[in-house]
Amino acid sequence: MGIKQNIIDFMDEKLYKPMLKEELAIQFGIDMREMDSFYKVLDEMEKEGIIIKTRNDRYGLVHKMNLIVGRIEGNEKGFAFLIPEDKTREDIFIPAEELNGAIHGDRVIVRIVKKGLQDRKDEGEVIRILERVNETIVGTFESSKNFGFVIPDDSRIAYDVFVPKNHINGAKDNQKVVVEITRWPEKRRNPEGKIIEVLGYVGEKGVDILSIIKQYKLCEEFPEKVQQQASRINQKVTEEEIKNRVDLRDLNTFTIDGADAKDLDDAVSIEKKGENYNLGVHIADVSHYVPERSPLDKEAFKRGNSVYLVDRVIPMLPKELSNGICSLNPNEDRLTLSVFMEIDKSGNVVNHEVVEGVIRSKARLIYDDVSDLLEYGKDEAFKNLDDIVGDLRLMEELANILRQKRERRGSIDFDFPEARMILDENGIPVDIVKEDRRIANSIIEEFMLVCNETIAEYMYWSEMPFLYRIHEEPDTEKIESFNRLIHNFGYFIKGSQDIHPKELQRITKEVKGKKEETLINTLLLRSLKKARYSSEPDIHFGLAAKYYTHYTAPIRRYPDLQIHRIIKAFYKGKLTSKEQERLEAVLPKVADHTSITERTAEEAERAVMDLKVAEYMSKRIGNVYEGIVSSLTHFGMYVQLENTVEGLVHFSNMLDDYYYFDDENYYIIGENTKKKYKLGDVVKIKVIKADLVNRTVDFMLVS
Fold this sequence. Notes:
By secondary structure, this protein is α+β, with helices and mostly antiparallel strands. 30% of the residues lie in helices and 28% in strands.
């Protein structure tokens, strides 16, 4: 047991009273030579938010002092919420005057100052800032005579950054800049900074997306050490690498991906085994090329995942791996970690095997071609691929069985049409295309789901340290609120206490094909918790699964890479008690960090999409469209168009009456005319504004 755990156990004792560091040193028998090291451990534990030093320099456990550690989630109005690291705790409301210099993203310690009554949240004050994350901020520069200000692009940072004249460094009005914070905010005092990079003028080609990349601290280039390691990797599989592997090169394996995909990390194969199916899911063996704690591994962990923006990919691994030796390109030998599952005609996995293999993919198939074949019999893309066509029909059969099994247990399927932005060669948006999920996408989805579940269940029963993908049960209040909203459409949920996913699945089935389908599915999704990574097993509510993990995408997700290492070590008998102890310490950090990088990637992807939507609609000012009321607020209502674009109809642009939001009856109503607007109402709108800086679109109703 380490010294940190000993300190925690000692301080956790009932009779412990906060002590000075000298008293703790005496208690632990620390001699003079070890004193500095012991004090460093206390400092580390304080920075980690495990212990806190009181005003009279005494140390105690944070949780025993009724303090909470978490991250600040800012709001443009100045207040914020603490998102606790203890996932069992609710978020805590922090008024602007109680932030005490903390800003969005900071890791802090909060004291509860007021208990929340009924459905109100607890209220707290920041008493300690453990970690600052916004050392640089991206925004728009505004100059004055003797100083300037940077207005942050991220509206959750509620302060403008003051820039003294000698730190403006050539920045001009209306330029996008990166400002480095030189002095953090205090009560009634803005942060101070210096301009370290000028990105270009607002509206200048390329500056918009570059600003988002900088805002979310995404790195397009890899550090030199990482690139050097990647460049040394042999782009051919050698006989030496193959000799201890299962040779699967004669197996009829192939990949199915989008037309633009370059990082092909999964291939599939299928055979009949009597009445059963033998499904092979072959995943690129990235862990073979990325040794733990190497420069490549450290950079992959830091990034956490690849980020897919509208016009580019920011990969987790350099192209030598992501598009090269790890990509399962056709007619090339590739190393895999392959999972073979024997599945019966009810969709049960009756047997499985994991092998280190080598495959040679027979074809690189495209989703649309496979869907055209299976849905319409179009086989132009499959000349001389008769074996593959037969396998695809067998795969469709198995995918249907697996989907029906998931449906029977209550798995919730959100069949959202995805919007794809079409850009011209200059990066200007020319169209927004709605893409429905087709049979080929469903086949791969079902096979990846069953593979992830199979691995998770097996590792759960092995009782080894592991990373799970969990989705906890939703909060009762959110489900009750959702129930009130859908009541407007004539739907209802039976019993919102201890709700089963099957009940929510029923709603998604009832709305299928109706005009309100996308709206209600969106409201339901917002009512559920976000899935996350965890070193502790838990359910996946949305999939109605007892065990789930992410195993199938190690090129673009770090948890999958970590999981591959654990599985290989387990099968080779290398998970010694010492290694298990190390993993138990490491995995919670991996889970928390990659959950954060995943959210960052989603936010960056959404920001770029919102930007390009605003740019697309800016060329359509004055156009009239039909849409559906998708959200109601105290300042107006949002309307979603057929192409998925959403815009705000602000109350100030509803000129025929004074409108307000009746949140009890959940509609917008005119004070004089009593005219009502409800969720799901079909309305006609005119596009009146598209703001590329704030990435928003404004509409006005037309009769």
